[in-house]
Design goal:
This protein has helices at about 10-20, 40-45, 60-65, 70-80, 125-180, 180-210, 215-230, 250-270, 315-325; strands at about 25-30, 35-40, 85-95, 100-110, 115-125, 215, 240-245, 250, 280-290, 290-300, 330-335, 340-345. The chain is an alpha+beta fold.
């Protein structure tokens, strides 16, 4: 048989002890919203005394500090319909306590042996939590604004760099047309193409909006299209194809890769086809796997004699390619049999 409390007085004593044991503010209201009991935490936090609390209408406590529209909505509208409510937030300036944000949990208790009912109303002070959340929100907003400003500055820098590179390329081309020395003209045109390759990655970064990674396929396609437009004429046709997978590469490495492709393509255009051929073709390929990536530039031209020198035709272009391959921590292999094929392999980190 379950044990029972022998007297009403004992039940009230037990109920008050339970209420006082709770660390958060708690009050018990009758059906008319008058206070039947209140926890010790309620008295301490809201700075009220029991003589002016017990039996009083909730809205009259503390000179009306509990006459809060949101609280009235909870007790007079929501609780009669739902009998329970958790996490009802109230923000109010309590006299002598200050601005507080409270979560209210309410329960309507209905008795089997009586028509009367009581309401248990518990308070959780989340003022500090909301302050932290607001500070975090402000910090996040400030951080996002700083990132936005950084993005704007970087885009402006990219725009200025791109303009500067275009101006330099134009000056080099003008100088190439003005000089009388054919050798100097060729060197200036080569420099013009190198500047354009750097400008191309800048333009691609600006268009993609990604400052860290770019997709290799579209980048190489645009770069080679620019090279073909400026170096391959209709009277001397050479097909320049790009075959690349969906690999991505860091923007810093993309500049080096673009310069390598520029040098190798220029080398192939200048030396691989000394006579006009209908099937003249240069292929730029890029493949990426979990093991790393492979960049290839090949042609079906006359080829050359294999030598310890990486490229058959040495010079400034050769030195540039060697330096860039080393900068990428990659390895280069040259095959010169039927045409020329340069492979640059970079293992995964």
């Amino acid at each position: 048989m379950p044990t029972t409390i022998p007297a009403i007085e004992d039940a009230q004593t037990l109920a008050q002890a339970i209420v006082d044991t709770i660390h958060e503010p708690l009050i018990v209201l009758d059906g008319g919203l008058r206070v039947l009991a209140a926890s010790r935490a309620f008295y301490e936090i809201f700075r009220v005394d029991s003589e002016r609390t017990m039996g009083c209408l909730l809205y009259d406590l503390g000179d009306g500090q509990w006459n809060i529209p949101a609280l009235r909505l909870l007790l007079e509208t929501i609780i009669p319909e739902k009998t329970a409510m958790d996490g009802f937030e109230v923000d109010h300036d309590f006299p002598g306590v200050g601005r507080r944000t409270m979560l209210l949990n309410a329960r309507k208790v209905i008795y089997e042996t009586s028509a009367d009912s009581t309401i248990l109303l518990a308070f959780t002070d989340i003022t500090a939590r909301r302050a932290v959340e607001r500070n975090l929100a402000d910090l996040l907003e400030h951080t996002e604004e700083l990132l936005r400003q950084k993005q704007v500055l970087l885009q402006e820098m990219q725009h200025r760099v791109a303009n500067s590179l275009q101006i330099i390329a134009s000056i080099l081309l003008i100088k190439a047309r003005a000089v009388t020395s054919e050798e100097t003209r060729l060197h200036l045109k080569d420099a013009h193409q190198r500047v354009l390759s750097v400008a191309e990655v800048q333009a691609h970064l600006h268009a993609s909006g990604d400052l860290d990674q770019i997709e290799v396929g579209p980048y190489l396609s645009k770069l080679c299209a620019s090279l073909a437009a400026s170096m391959i004429g209709d009277s001397y046709p050479i097909a320049l194809d790009v075959e690349a997978d969906h690999g991505w590469i860091g923007s810093d490495k993309a500049v080096s890769m673009g310069l390598i492709v520029t040098e190798l393509v220029i080398n192939a255009i200048k030396y691989a086809f000394p006579t006009t051929r209908a099937d003249a073709r240069i292929r730029v390929g890029f493949d990426s796997t979990d093991a790393g990536w492979l960049l290839t530039v090949s042609d079906n031209g006359v080829g050359g004699v294999e030598t310890a020198v990486p490229l058959v035709h040495g010079g400034l272009g050769t030195a540039i390619v060697e330096a860039l391959v080393k900068q990428l921590d990659a390895r280069m292999q040259v095959q010169s049999a039927e045409g020329m094929a340069v492979s640059i392999r970079h293992p995964a980190a």
